[in-house]
Design goal:
The structure holds two protein chains of two kinds. Chain A is α+β, with helices and mostly antiparallel strands. Chain A is about 20% helix and about 35% strand. In chain A, helix 2 packs across helix 3, helix 2 packs parallel to helix 4 and helix 3 crosses helix 4. Classes of the chains: A alpha+beta, B mainly alpha.
Chain lengths: ~375, ~325
């Protein structure tokens, strides 16, 4: 299979064996009493990378960020930043800044004083502070709000003040805890691109924590999927989506159809999977799985075609009945109940305004897909 | 037939409007009532008594019941009432300025109250801070412990301090036994004893408003300050303290105001040497039976306290307007 690199830009230090890691989590464990928030976790993040920690709430991703910021110390293991062990260094001496989920703007200070706070702490001369604050206000387009207090701003404006405050000091690493969580959908999408531009322009390393897979996919160079304090997979958004390493990752990121089965016959990556009830799936992506192995065949809904007749050329085609149709405008989602009872989700882009092969509820239908469309998961 | 139908049709909306107007009036009245009640309360239990006290302060002392003249007598009608008003004068206020005792008593009271307020703040702030940062599960218990002393009579608690502070009291016994001192400390019947008494008695009034201000504060603000390079002590003065200021001011007023007029604590713990306005007032009223003079003392005391409160409220209103 062709390697799926970063599709955004020519930036793949993780594929370079000589690249020096910038942030290293080295067998880090964090316990709160009996609860293990982070379990023997190792991660490397590279300079100027936009790195996302993705996971459900309570998976330990925020704890990772807080350990990097210095609010928590690891129970075991170590965290290195640019080769320096961060253990024992208090948050106010770390070259990282954090944008808080609640924004944590100082309510008794104006916007400009909020942004200037960190610079004043560093003892920067006054004219330089004024210049930097003006630059930051311009960057987040809040020039005319400099004298306002946080409670006089909208949610989106507050978010931008928090962002300006956290980048004002030009930290080596910017930590973002659910940076877009409190914004509405439209604003969130706009801000995603703003954040990406900002990261590019300032040349900073961003580590963002999010539970929103779409957000992580849009913004990040690489995504670490975290579950129960452990890393499930670290990969580019395309890899995570197209080549998930485990059932958990496949199910967590995007929608997926899974067929449980056994490898019936296989050679050089290609294999037939006996999925029971007379369903045989032929795939090119079986990897090293040998005959007899219990596997899960995972396939994304948009890679499945639904038609009323069995496509003549199809290698994989299974018959069923249309159970549900959801018209979403840009695409239509079909739920097809196979004859063994399993429901398959398939989505079709509505490229034309009128479909030549209209399907309706309870129609007999065929779901078909190419042998290279799905992945075989053994974990 | 048709005309009858029209009348009924037109009548029914009329009655329904009438009903809704009635309901609306009722709602408006009950809405007003909620606002009126506190005003009526203040009228009867603050303004009228104050007017009476003020009137007495303008009267002359007399050997009579009540012990001042003119006493309110409405048998003379309106003209009689006017004649009585003419007898009122400011003699008692003039007298207050002529005897340095009163001036000194006011000044000492304000100073003692101010020092006690600062001491209470110094003791109360760490307590309130600790409570606000305690795990949420034990906060109600801590709050209960702060309020617990109120379950015992105030007078008894102040008496108990005599037992602790007197030369052969518990404190001196402890210090002598542990060898910290060799001579008993003289604390009882000094200003120190008054400070101890006031700080002890008024501590909950300081802790509670401070606690409510600190408890509301988002702890991530402190983390944000630290994250931006602010060491913990500096973060306290730049973030925590300014944000707790409303609690500080409320607590200070709640301690300062009653402390200025405090009588029981200086009387029991301060001995005969200490001079405070509450004690002076007591002596004038019960010792000398000079109702008009003690009323004048009380009126001046009230003015003394009302002015700073009003200044504070004005400043607060202005700050709120600026925020808007």
């Amino acid at each position: 299979m062709k390697s799926l690199g970063s599709i955004r830009r020519d930036f793949t230090p993780w594929n370079d064996p000589n690249a020096k890691p910038y942030i290293q989590f080295d067998n880090v464990t964090k316990k709160f009493g009996d609860f293990t928030a982070v379990n023997n976790l190792s991660l490397t993040i590279f300079e100027r990378e936009f790195f996302a920690l993705l996971g459900a709430s309570g998976c330990g991703k925020s704890t990772l960020l807080r350990m990097l910021a210095g609010f928590e110390e690891p129970t075991a293991g170590r965290i290195l930043l640019d080769g320096q062990d961060l253990r024992g260094i208090p948050p106010y001496r770390r070259p990282v800044n954090m944008m808080f989920q609640s924004y944590a703007l100082f309510p008794h200070m104006t916007v400009e004083n909020n942004i200037a706070f960190g610079l004043k702490q560093d003892g920067m001369p006054k004219p330089e502070i004024a210049a930097r604050v003006a630059e930051m206000l311009r960057l987040v387009k809040l020039e005319q709000f400099a004298k306002r207090k946080p409670h006089q701003l909208s949610g989106g404006q507050r978010q931008r003040v928090a962002l300006a405050r956290s980048v004002a000091k030009r930290p080596k690493v910017l930590l973002l805890d659910e940076p877009l969580g409190a914004l509405d959908k439209k604003l969130r999408e706009e801000t995603q691109f703003e954040l990406m531009d900002l990261q590019q322009n300032l040349g900073l390393t961003f580590v963002v924590v999010t539970h929103d897979q779409e957000e992580a996919m849009t913004m990040a160079d690489r995504i670490a999927i975290i579950d129960k304090g452990e890393v499930m997979q670290v990969a580019t958004p395309a890899e995570v989506y197209e080549a998930p390493g485990s059932r958990f990752v496949a199910g967590f990121v995007g929608n997926v159809n899974m067929f449980e089965g056994k490898i019936a016959r296989g050679e050089a990556g290609a294999a037939s999977i006996d999925a029971g009830n007379g369903i045989t799936i032929r795939t090119d992506n079986a990897g090293t799985a040998s005959a007899g192995t219990a596997v899960t065949f995972a396939i994304r809904p948009e890679k499945i075609k639904v038609s009323s007749k069995k496509p003549a050329e199809a290698i994989n085609a299974i018959e069923g009945e249309v159970y549900d149709i959801a018209y979403l405008g840009d695409m239509t989602v079909f739920h097809v109940r196979l004859d063994d009872g399993q429901v398959v989700r398939a989505s079709t882009m509505n490229a034309a305004r009128i479909t030549e092969d209209p399907l309706s509820w309870n129609d007999r239908a065929w779901v078909s897909f190419r042998p290279d469309a799905g992945v075989v998961l053994t974990r | 037939m048709s005309s009858a139908a029209v009348t009924t049709a037109s009548a029914s909306p009329a009655t329904s409007t009438g009903k809704s107007v009635h309901a609306r009036l009722g709602a408006a009245f009950s809405g007003r009532l909620v606002i009126i009640i506190p005003y009526v309360w203040l009228l009867f239990f603050f303004l009228i008594p104050f007017v009476i006290v003020f009137k007495i302060s303008l009267s002359q002392t007399a050997i009579a019941i009540p012990p001042y003249t003119p006493a309110l007598d409405i048998s003379g009608g309106f003209s009689g009432f006017l004649a009585q008003l003419k007898q009122l004068n400011l003699d008692n206020y003039t007298w207050l300025t002529q005897d340095a005792l009163y001036f000194n008593a006011y000044v000492t009271s304000v100073i003692i109250a101010a020092i006690s307020t600062v001491l209470t703040l110094l003791v109360g702030y760490p307590i309130a801070y600790g409570m606000a940062r305690a795990p949420a599960t034990i906060r109600p218990t801590l709050l209960m412990l702060v309020i617990l002393p109120f379950w015992t009579s105030f007078l008894i608690r102040v008496y108990a301090w005599i037992g602790i502070l007197k030369p052969e009291g518990l404190l001196n016994q402890l210090l002598l036994a542990t060898g910290v001192i060799h001579q008993p400390l003289i604390i009882l019947n000094t200003y120190t004893a008054i400070f101890i008494g006031i700080v002890y008695s008024y501590l909950p009034f300081m802790v509670l408003p401070l606690y409510s201000a600190l408890e509301k504060m988002d702890y991530s603000l402190i983390e944000a300050a630290k994250d931006l390079g602010c060491p913990p002590t500096s973060a306290f003065w730049k973030i925590t303290f300014p944000l707790s200021l409303p609690g500080v001011i409320a607590g200070c007023l709640l301690v300062f105001i009653p402390a200025v007029g405090e009588f029981v604590i200086p009387d029991l713990l301060g001995g005969s040497q200490t001079l405070m306005i509450g004690k002076t007032l007591w002596n004038e009223f019960f010792g000398n039976r000079d109702w008009p003079l003690s009323s004048a003392v009380a009126v001046i005391l009230l003015l003394l306290l009302i002015v700073p409160i009003m200044l504070f409220q004005r400043a607060q209103a202005r700050a709120q307007e600026m925020d808007r």
